[in-house]
Amino acid sequence: MIVAEQKPIKEILEMVKDYNKILVLGCKGCVTVCNVGGSKEAAILASTLKIAARKTNKKIEVEEHTLERQCDPEYVDEVKDMIDDYDAIISIACGVGPQFLSERYPSARIFPGVNTKFMGGAVEHGMWSERCAGCGTCVVHHFGGLCPIARCSKSLLNGPCGGSSDGKCEISQDVDCIWDIIVRKMTELGRLEELLEFMPPKSWITARDGGPRRLIREELVI
Amino acid sequence: MSDNFKPKIVAFYCSNCASSAANVADGMDKALPDNVKMVQVPCTGRIEILHLLKPFEEGADGVYVAGCQEDSCQYVTGITKAAKRVAYVKNTLEQLDIEPERINIYNLSAGKGQAFVDVALEMNDRVRELGPVLSE
Ligand code: SF4
Ligand code: SF4
Known about the structure:
The structure holds 2 protein chains of 2 kinds. By secondary structure, chain A is α/β, with parallel strands linked by helices. Chain A has helices spanning about 10-15, 30-35, 40-55, 75, 95-105, 150, 180-190, and strands at about 1-5, 20-25, 60-65, 90, 110, 115-125, 125-130.
């Protein structure tokens, strides 16, 4: 899933300080699963904005609504009859949401309510961890199913580096060295030899370095 | 704060320890302040962040949760979850420049009726001192 976290309330308040009719727009996709942008969180943010207004004696109206997804035009269309009723929309979807909304409703004032962090998963309840950097050419099968691009601080394909120490990455004691994990796993599996094979430099054309990406699947295009 | 300020306080209490304490308090004829609105929940673990925010949105000056001791929660982790949510709301209030002391959580033991009344009185005093949420 795409993992995001809520922006600091002060930042959100600053963004919408000149607006009195606000719509908090949630998304039932990834951000619902990572508990930051679903209907529950839309209600929490709406309530928080109302408390802020109470504190500052400001009259505002805040409503909340949650779309199936904000990354599909058909769902973004759903709010077409509501959007003009608001001076400001706070999208709490990942960064795709505010953009799809801004493209569909060019004159609406759309603000991002969350900071989009990474592609990953829940490793524990309330704890998420990065797993994929969207490099466009997946190679995890060479590394025991673990991604050194997203999970090694230097994205090394021939690791570990000299900074690996006691299973931790040199950047921080809080960061596991994925190469330590890869080597241990491959050793346990009796496949360590596979790691001796030199991995040539990866082409980053399919990653962000190749510029903004898009995908066309002719068989789906109508 | 002016002497006649009567804060609006909402209290959530669980149907186990805190409720038993409430019954004892009742039996002892210990009166709660009439400005404390009591909301009984099956377990404090059921209290969501939104439940704690809503009273502030709708005019409350203080909110508190009365639940079990951490090691005697009927549902094991209910009170621990509630404590984390209260901490979250304290942080939210702080970001809104509202005193985080306006929300609190208390661990009560079954049967301690006096304590049940005492926390209500303590919150009442505390919020009276802080005054209304609105900044003048
Ligand atoms: S190799 Fe590329 S596509 Fe595969 S998990 Fe890593 S970053 Fe993602
Ligand atoms: S210590 Fe490990 S994770 Fe960190 S940069 Fe070196 S190989 Fe990568």
